[in-house]
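G., the chain you wanted modeled:
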Amino acid sequence: MTQPNNKKSRYCTRCTRALKACLCDYIVPVENQTPLYILQHPNEVAHPKGTASLLAASLKGAELHVGEDFSQVDWLNELLADPARRCYLLWPDEEALSLAQLRQQCELTSGSHLPIAFILLDGTWRKAYRMLQSNPMLARLPRIGLEAVAGQYAIRKKPFPDALSTLEAGYHLLAQWEGTPERYAPLLTLFNQLNSQWLAFAEGRRR
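Predicted structure as tokens:
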């Protein structure tokens, strides 16, 4: 993600966007205390409006992995089987704990509290659901959800009003969990720049 750009390529090796639309000047490294693992559907890799690569490039404690079937991926199986860490999947459904409930659980078990890691699926709602169904070890993870927040993803169709981009989801998840929204403010600045860039492009095409 941080390699120098290849002068023969039209794409940035850091933010993965076209060089003429590179957003690296707006990427501010952020030290997240809670590790974040982003599992990206292959269809999202080259999507020009995607935000997962921007999130991964901004967070020092984040990893971005591309795939659809992770059932035989050693690093993920080892992570999920590690007794020294507890992983939670960001997935809003009836079974999902709120962050407040998760924090309460941690406080009740403070004597034996394990370090936490978050897993985030990057893809359309349909693709993300298919990823979940294709990976039983992910489906078995305890799930967490975010409080309803208005998403600002103005450049891509949302499946429902509260839907968030991957970058927004990462921001709200870490900012709410760690209680330091000011630390993660650069993520929103980057996201707003992406929106502004695309809206300006669309306006230019209409003229």
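Strands lie at 36-40, 62-66, 86-90, 97-98, 116-122, 143-145.

Shout if anything looks off.
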